[in-house]
TrEMBL record:
It is found in: Cytoplasm. ATP binds at residues 111-117. This is UDP-N-acetylmuramoylalanine--D-glutamate ligase. One of its GO terms (molecular function) is ATP binding. Coiled coil: none annotated. The lineage of its organism: Bacteria, Pseudomonadati, Bacteroidota, Flavobacteriia, Flavobacteriales. Gene3D superfamilies: Mur ligase, C-terminal domain, Mur-like, catalytic domain, NAD(P)-binding Rossmann-like Domain. It is an enzyme of class 6 (ligase). Pfam families: Mur_ligase_C, Mur_ligase_M, MurD_N. Belongs to the MurCDEF family.
């Protein structure tokens, strides 16, 4: 009997991890990348004698696959993927492939914003008492961890693109942080399709499984009303009382599961802002389900440091706080950032616009922003949106220049906030590169 053929499109972290797991499980593996494969990944493929190609897709070596794992960055609309679908060859994501080879308890987190912080916070809470891996869109590949570590539990940060490639994947605990329009270019500009994609995290769940979600998010609650799921629901809310789940009562977070209650003062949370109360609710609900002790949950919420490039306090210079929120690649993420500003703010914004509507930011900009620095190739839309609201709008294409301007404009007690609301590809490699350049420029002032 011949080996089954696993073809992997994309030679990045998830692709190479899947290749290693596939080989270990007896597949004949072929990795194909239309771009170039990073040297560190090439070395791994060569060392493990896995066949690969770059800067091309050889159809004769791909269309004979039994199963194809494609990188989340490749759209389903690509001609090659369409051909595979027409030939009824399953095209799946890394989480679908890897989950078949582990019996671990899986916590899956998706949402438009907050998933990295929530996943990191959850991992921080759980690792105090149980063995747990952190993977998905974050850290080392899930497939590679299943092969090398096989933890008893995993926290997976999962994007809608990864969820589009699942068939049987089922997390025992699913979390949806929020749903706002993002990446609509990949969903025929139909918000409904994007929402359905997020909800597929729960499509294989049964009543033994849990779905934790933001009950204040109308997109989520309306969808659940119209498309009920099998899962046991554990909502969280800042505005109404929740019997099973988490809510805010005065200064306390109250979490109840099957009549077992934890009360935590919100003032003790390490991370500030309303959205971080929600992240704490989601994370502590998961920790409670996985039998982490109440005391441990409380302590972990108090000492969690947060995520790089997400509302990260960089330095205070002349009583001006510089804040790196480069991970804010859409309007909704920047909404949280501006909402949490408690001082006049010089706001650095701009990049590649993903069809942004800046209207929801108007109240905060009116109230808190004293100057705007546009850091992008095309800033027209930002200038039109906010031109009447702030006295000073400046354009630049260099981070060092942006920081020098901010330094001149900011006065004692102000904030300088990098929260671009846009993708970074016009001037930077990625949002991490943008955030690091910001921090470096601030340190060089």
């Amino acid at each position: 009997m011949s080996k089954k053929r696993l073809v992997i499109l994309g030679g990045g972290e998830s692709g190479v991890g899947t290749a290693l797991l596939g080989k270990a499980k007896g597949y004949e593996v072929f990795v194909s990348d239309k771009g170039t494969i990073k040297v560190k990944y090439k070395k791994v493929l060569i060392h493990n004698e896995i066949e690969w190609e770059e800067q091309q897709h050889t159809e004769s070596k791909i269309l004979n696959a039994d199963v194809v794992m494609k990188s989340p960055g490749i759209s389903d609309k690509v001609a090659l993927v369409q051909q595979l679908i027409q030939k009824n060859i399953p095209v799946i994501s890394e989480i679908e492939f890897a989950s078949k080879y582990t019996n671990a308890t899986i916590v899956g987190i998706t949402g438009s914003n907050g998933k990295t912080t929530t996943a990191s916070l959850m991992h921080h809470l759980l690792k105090q008492e149980i063995e747990v891996g952190l993977a998905g869109n974050i850290g080392d590949s899930f497939a590679k961890q299943v092969l090398e570590k096989d933890y008893k539990n995993y926290v997976l940060e999962i994007s809608s693109f990864q969820l589009d490639g699942i068939i049987d994947f089922k997390p025992q605990i699913a979390v949806i942080t929020n749903i706002t329009p993002d990446h609509l270019d990949r969903y025929d500009n139909q918000f409904e399709k994007y929402i359905a994609s997020k909800f597929s995290i729960a499509k294989n769940q049964t009543k033994e499984d849990y779905l934790i979600y933001d009950a204040d998010d109308e997109v989520i609650t309306n969808w659940l009303d119209a498309h009920p799921v099998q899962s046991t629901l554990l909502p969280f809310s800042l505005v109404r009382k929740i019997e099973n789940g988490a809510y805010l009562e005065q200064e306390n977070i109250i979490l109840t599961i099957d009549n077992n209650q934890i009360i935590m003062p919100k003032t003790n949370l390490a991370l500030e802002g309303k959205h971080n109360i929600k992240n704490a609710m989601a994370a502590s609900t998961v920790a409670h389900l996985l039998k982490i002790r109440k005391q441990t949950i409380r302590e972990s919420l108090e000492n969690f440091q947060g995520v790089e490039h997400r509302l990260e306090n960089v330095l205070k210079i002349n009583k001006v706080q510089y804040i790196n929120d480069s991970k804010a690649t859409n309007v909704n993420a920047t909404y949280y950032a501006l909402e949490s500003m408690d001082a006049p703010t010089v706001w650095i914004v701009g990049g590649v616009d993903k069809g942004n509507n800046y209207q929801e930011l108007y109240p905060f900009v009116n109230e808190k922003v004293k100057a705007i620095i546009c850091l992008g190739v095309d800033n027209q839309k930002i200038i039109e949106a906010f031109g009447n609201m702030v006295d000073i709008i400046v354009e630049t294409q260099y981070m060092t220049e942006a920081i020098k301007i901010a330094y001149k404009l900011a006065e004692s007690g102000d904030n300088v906030l990098l929260s671009p609301a846009c993708a970074s590809f016009d001037l930077f490699e990625n949002y991490e590169d943008r955030g690091r350049q910001f921090k470096e420029a601030v340190r060089n002032l």
